Amino acid sequence: MPKSLPIALPITLRMYRRLASGLVPIAPALIKRRLKQGKEDPARVGERRGLSRDVRPHGPLVWIHGASVGEVLAAAALIERLRDLNLRILLTSGTVTSAAVVAKRFPPDVIHQYVPYDSPRYVARFLDHWQPSLALFIESDLWPNLILAGAARRVPMVLINGRMSPRSFPRWRRMYGTISALLSRFDICLAQSKTDAERFSALGGRDVVTTGNLKLDVPAPPADPAKLERLMAMTRGRPIIVAASTHPGEDEMLVAAHRNLVGFFPQLLTVIVPRHPDRGSSIAGLITASGLKPALRSREELPTAATDVYVADTMGELGLFYRLSPIVFMGGSLIRHGGQNPIEAIKLGAAIVHGPHVFNFADVYEALDASGGARQADTQELLVKQLGQLLADPTVRDKMQRAGHGVVEDLGGALNRTMTALEPYLLQLRIEMGAANA
Length: 438
Fold this sequence. Notes:
The chain is α/β, with parallel strands linked by helices and about 450 residues long. It has helices at about 10-20, 25-35, 70-75, 75-85, 95-105, 120-130, 145-150, 170-175, 175-185, 195-200, 225-235, 250-260, 280-290, 320, 345, 360-370, 380-390, 395-410, 415-435; strands at about 60-65, 90-95, 110-115, 135-140, 155-160, 190, 210, 240-245, 270-275, 295, 310, 325-330, 350-355, 375. The protein has 19 helices and 14 strands. The strands form two sheets. The chain has a seven-stranded parallel β-sheet with strand order 3-2-1-4-5-6-7, with helices on both faces. Helix 12 (about 250-260) crosses helix 17 and helix 16 (about 360-370) crosses helix 18. It is globular and about 65 Å long. About 45% of the residues are buried.
C-alpha cells in the first residue's frame, strides 16, 4: 500500500540516529548489566541485536509491537481475530515479564521476539530477517529507528490503541518537529479516546481515528482451577482484600490500612500482588517490620490462619486472586504512575477502589466513579474508610459490581472498530496470500 514519506528529518532525530549507531560498541556491556539485573533472558540476548534462531514463516506476517505486559495483553483478542484470518503473527516486546506472559497465555504459533535495541544496525537485521507485511505499534512505545526504518521499507504501519498521556503531551508539544516526524510515518493512528485522538492530531498524526480502548475487550484472565480451589480452602471464611499491581510507595499505605482494618475484621487477609514480582522480598520485610506476618507465594507458601498479608509475587496469576476476593484495590494510583487497568478485575466481579492518579485510564475511571462502579480514595484515612465499607456491606459490593459491568459493556467495541479500520491492510494481505497459494 504506497504512501508518500516525508524526506527531511529534524536535527533531533538525525542526532539520535548517530548517537544510537555510536552506542553499538558498548551494547555488550549494557546487556551484561541488564542480565545481572534480571532484565534480559540469557538464552535470547541475540534478539536484542536483531538476531534470531527462529525462521520466518511463509506468507504475510503481521508484526505487533508492545512495550510490556499491559500492551501485549491488550492485543490478545486482536491477535485471535488475525489468526482466524490465517495470518501469522510476530509479537515483540521489551521485558522478560512480557515474554513469560506470551509463553503462558498465547498460542504456540504466535512468534515472540524481544524488540531489538534501537540502533540502525540492529533494527536493519531485525527487518531483514522478518520482513513484516504489516506493522502494528500498540499505544505509545515509539522507537525512532524502528519506525523510520519500517517506513523507509514501505511497510504499512499503524498505531493501534494509541494513548497520549497528559504528562507526555506537553513535553511532545515542545518537540513538535520530532514527534510529528515519527507520527507522520504511520499510515493511520487508532486512538483510545477522543482526547487521545485530539492530541495525536495536534502532534502531527495523520488520519487519526478514535476506536476505543482494546483493553476493555480483553477476556478475563484465566486461573488454574486446582490452585484456586486450594487457595479458597485455605482462606475460607476470611474477609479478603486484593491489592493488584502495586508500585513502590503504595505497599506501605496498604499495610497501614490492613493494621487499621484488622481491629474491625480480625480475620482479614490482605493479598498484595506487586506489579514487579521481584519486589516480593522487600514487601515481606516491610510487612514484618510493621508487626504483621507475611507469606510469599514465590516461596510456594500458602496463607495460613496466622498470615496477615499474602504477597503474591509471581507472574500471570492475577486471574487467580481476582476470583478469590470481591474487593480489589487497583495499584499505580496512590502514586503518580497513572493507575493500572481495572477491566479484568471488573469482569471477574470486583468492586474497585483506587487512588487519585488514574490518568492512564482516565475515561474508564471517570465512567466507573460516575456510575458507582468504583470509589476513589485520596488519603490514607479515606482508603481505610472505603475498604472498610466494602468489607462490612455485601449489598454495596454487589451494587458496585453491577455498575462496573455496565460501564465495561458501554465502553466496549474497540476490537470491532479496530478490525474495521485495519480492513484495507488486511484485504491486501489476503490478496497476497491468494497470489502466493495460486
